[in-house]
Design a protein that fits this description.
The chain is of the alpha/beta class. The chain has one domain: Nucleoside phosphorylase domain (Rossmann fold, 3-Layer(aba) Sandwich). The chain is about 40% helix and about 30% strand. It contains six helices and ten strands, in the order E-H-E-E-E-H-E-E-E-H-E-H-E-H-E-H. A five-stranded mixed beta barrel has the order 5-9-8-6-10, surrounded by four helices. Strand 3 and strand 4 form a beta hairpin. Helix 1 packs parallel to helix 6, helix 2 packs parallel to helix 5 and helix 3 crosses helix 6. The longest helix has 29 residues. Bound molecules: S-adenosyl-L-homocysteine.
């Protein structure tokens, strides 16, 4: 088994690389991929750069070029569900693209023909994450993550996303990674720690908490790696 671990930004994968220790760096399609053997299992770690297009490229590369057969995403997100405070963890049960809009033709937001509004994550990985959460004594919320190519820092935009997708958190990569993994039949898991609440002061909050929240997410992901390896 080969496990892909993805983030969008350097800060999201740095704490993972620290845990792994030694790795081989390969450049491919404008990104760096870090390959390691960890507890006897092969890992490929990479950050994609921000947004749906870059994350699509990286997820596809991890699967098609590096032959990974499970993908774990670690990163930060804007919280919508009021239960989610800065530093809290959310695991996606399903994801959507909140900026995919051909409603002019009578379709619902997030839908294109032959696609679906939501892509569900892997049930077995969700189950494993419950075990990790209880072993760590950590509260983890399961919910809907909405993805789009905007940093959301506006309450009315946030409300609009809730209206269409009933989302609990939003970010800029999960929905596209979900589409890739679903199409290529690779089980995937999307974890995010909250860095801001996607309203007017989101960019200040993001700058203050992105690094600490990225570490919280990375620590949980490494426990997930242990679980996946031991199954
Ligand atoms: N500060 C960065 C830009 C960060 S963009 C820079 O200047 O380079 C926000 C990143 O964090 C994205 O990868 C996204 O997935 C996540 N994110 C956190 N809060 C978000 C929010 N409120 N809206 C959208 N994405 C958010």
């Amino acid at each position: 088994m080969k496990i892909a671990i993805m983030g969008a930004m350097p800060e999201e994968v740095a704490p993972i690389l620290e845990k792994i220790g030694t790795y081989k760096t390969t450049e491919y399609a404008g990104n760096k991929y870090y390959e390691a053997t960890y507890k006897g299992t092969e890992l490929v770690v990479a950050y994609s750069k921000i947004g749906k297009v870059f994350s699509t490229l990286t997820a596809t590369t991890m699967i098609e070029h590096f032959s990974c057969d499970v993908l774990l995403f670690s990163g930060v997100a804007g919280g919508i569900n009021p239960e989610l405070k800065i530093g809290d963890l959310i695991v996606a049960t399903k994801l959507s693209q909140h900026d995919l809009d051909i409603t002019a033709f009578g379709h619902p937001m997030g839908y294109v023909p032959e696609g679906s509004v939501f892509v569900e994550t892997d049930k077995d990985l969700l189950k494993l994450s419950k075990e990790v959460a209880s072993e760590l004594g950590k509260k983890v919320i399961e919910g809907v993550i909405a993805t789009g190519d905007q940093f959301v820092h506006d309450s009315s935009m946030k409300e609009n996303i809730v209206k269409h997708f009933n989302a609990d958190a939003l970010e800029m990569e999960g929905g596209s990674v979900a589409v890739v993994c679903n199409a290529l039949n690779v089980p995937f898991f999307i974890l995010r720690a909250i860095s801001d609440t996607a309203d007017t002061d989101a960019s200040f909050s993001f700058d203050e908490f992105m690094e600490s929240s990225a570490i919280i997410s990375a620590e949980f992901i490494m426990k997930m790696v242990d679980k996946v390896i031991s199954k």
